[in-house]
Each structure stands twice: as structure tokens, then as C-alpha cells.
Amino acid sequence: MTRLTLISAVCIFLLAACGDAPATDAPGTALIVENPFHGPHQNGDAYRLDMEEIVRFGAEEEPEREMLSQVRGVEVDREGNVYILDGNRLISFTAEGDFRWESGREGEGPGEFTRAWSMLMTPDGHLLVRNQGGQRFDYFTLSGTYVQSLSRDLDVFDGFANPIGFLDDTTAVVTGAVRDGQGVIVRLAQTSADWQVADTFRVEPEMELDLPTGFSIGAGGAILDGNIVLARPDVYELGIFSPQGDTVRIVRRDVRDFTRPGYATFDGGAGIRSYSRTSMPVVLPGGYRIIAAGWPTNIPDPDAHAKASFAQEDPPDPINHSTLDVYDADWRLLFSIENEDLDALEFGTVMAQPAPGDLYIVRSSPYPHVKRVRVAVEGTGSTPPTRP
């Protein structure tokens, strides 16, 4: 399964990884792909995106215990059973959407949940929950039974750690922040050896920010085609890195309103507010990729806006531009579905992708639910030649 973890309140800055080997271009590909704001097929009919809903989980007419509220993670096993981290519980459905079981409650004891942020299915068939605000990592069986918690003192979990996926049956990828500093640390850990760190590389910041004392910049990410994908919060850019830390590809879109996070100190503390987002890429049949993104168009000074927000001074609500961008196999932007057209598509936040084009997405309207959809790009036109 391709693991997708979307960037949320945590942020990352990247330019290039600090590795020993230089980045090289494969024949016919470009290391840095610069895309315009709109692709060449924005207003044509040569390409279109089709989406079909297959099944819905947490349907409105089901009993209350089967309803969803705050979905933080979705995983799918080999039989198609679906596992959902929903608020303070785990809940499972069959592939057809029938309720199977529910486990957990709010609390800080074994098998209990407080601020559980994400979930990952391990190759050996367990659910690994990032619990207690990222301070605890709990193993559960596929029947919802608590097994054990990993030690927070392990080196791999230093710096707001986030396990994002597995390169093989025993090699986990964990991203984290530089403690009291800037930059992203990517660690490869051997789960068969008590999560011992086997290799590490660091992604340096492109620009230094005056962070409040004690703050770090964290990271999320995804594994795609055996590589590690990270996204910047200050510009529309994805960085794709090999497990050894080499830069494989940098993908950019020219979005001038993309707003960096706001950093503010105020009476009683300090805070960071994220404004723009770029999702992890999703692979579709034919090699197409889609990326969901959004940014405000009315926040010229994110620091001032963040400070006003934390001080409860009622600053203007962000007016967001939302987009679903369709790329070809060489990361060239073809077209985008934006704003009202995207709302009409009823797309959502991608949480799992068991196969190309087979997606599990979360939506909050008209009620919180997860749905399995099949997405494909139909094309009759030709794309521009590959950039040198």
C-alpha cells in the first residue's frame, strides 16, 4: 500500500538533502520541474478527471456508534477491511461498508486515546497509532486489541517524530524536526531491532526564520515509488528524495499567493499558524499524479495575522483558493480543478491508496464520512515535450 500522510499543522522547509552522492537526472527527465500557475490544458477538453464513488463508510442512516466524527487515519488490509482512527477510538468496516468492531475510549491508559494524530499499518499486520499528541506510539492488532507502546526515549522518536511508512518489511521511515531549530531529519529505523536507527539524512532550510524560543519545525511526508516525499509550507514545492538522501526531483508550481506559516509571540506564550497546504501526490492509472493544495489570497502578513488570531482580536478569515492539480508522469502540470468546480467534484482529503486510482478519502460534508472512490484521467491530447 502507498502510504499517504498529509501535511497539517506541522511544517517543513526544504531545499536539498544533505547526502554524500550528487543528484543526477535520469535520461529524458528534469531534476527541477518548474510549472506555471495553469497547465497548457486548463481550458481545453483534451483531458478530464473522472471520479466514481464505490462505497461509503459511516453512512448517515447507520447507528450512532458507527458514525464518524474526527477521522485521523485510514488503513486497508489485504482482504479489503477498512480501519479508521476516529477521535478516541478505532473502528473497522468490511470492504462493503458493514460495521465490524469498535475499540478504545478517551484516556491516557493502555489502549486509550488522547489527541491521536495518525495511524500506520505495519507490514506484519498491526496498527501503529501516533497517540497522546505524538508522545506515544501504540501497537494494536487488526481486531482492535492493544498490544504495547513503544518507548518514547528511542532515538528514532526525537524531534516531533512521525512514522510515515515502510520501505520494506522491517525498514520504517520516520520524519522529525531539528530540536530547537530548523530543518527536517529523516531516519530509517529497523523495526526488527527495536526501531534502531540504521541511517539518517537531513533536509536543510532554504530560509532562516526567527522562531520563538523552544519551537522547532516538524515534518510529515509520504513514500512514493520507493522514495521519500516532503512538502514546503512557504511555496508550492515538493521534494522527492532517495532513501540515501539524494535529491531525485523538485516539483514546483508558480503560486504567488502561497502563504508561509505565521509565527507569533503573545501574552502567555507563542504559536505557529499554518495557512497554505500541499498534499502528498496520489498516483493514478497511466502514471498521472494528482496533488491537492490550498492557500489564502488575503493574508499579506502571516505573522501579524497569526498574532491577532492567538490574541483573539478577530482578524479576517482567510479566503482560500482550493485546487486539485493533475500532472503527467514527468511531473508536468496538465490542468487544475479549482474552487467551485472542486467543491462540485466532492473530493476530499486522501487518507489511503491501496492501488493506483483506488483512494479512500475523508469528507466532513454533509456529515463526516470516509468513502472509497476510483479516480482516473482520460486524455486524448498530447503533452508538451519533456524538458531537458
Instruction: Provide the CATH superfamily.
Output: TolB, C-terminal domain
Instruction: Name the CATH architecture.
Output: 6 Propeller
Which series of helices and strands comes N to C? Answer: EEEEEEEEEEEEEEEEEEEEEEEHEEHEEE
Shape: globular
Number of domains: 1
- How widely separated are the two ends? 32 Å
Characterize the main sheet: 5 strands, mixed
User: What amount of the residues lies in strands?
Assistant: 35-45%
Radius of gyration: 21 Å
Strand ordering within the main sheet: 1-18-17-16-15
CATH class: Mainly Beta
Can you tag this structure with a few keywords?
388 residues, Neuraminidase, 28 strands, 4% helix, mainly beta, 42% strand
Task: Describe the fold and architecture.
The chain has 388 residues and is mostly beta strands. The protein has a single domain, classed as Neuraminidase (6 Propeller). Helix content is 4%, strand content 42%. The chain contains 2 helices and 28 strands. The strands form 7 sheets. A 5-stranded mixed sheet has the order 1-18-17-16-15, with no helix packed on it. A hairpin with a 2-residue loop joins β4 (82-86) and β5. The longest helix is centred in the C-terminal third of the chain and has 9 residues, at 302-310. The radius of gyration is 21 Å and the shape is globular. The model is unreliable at 1-24 and 383-388 (pLDDT under 50).
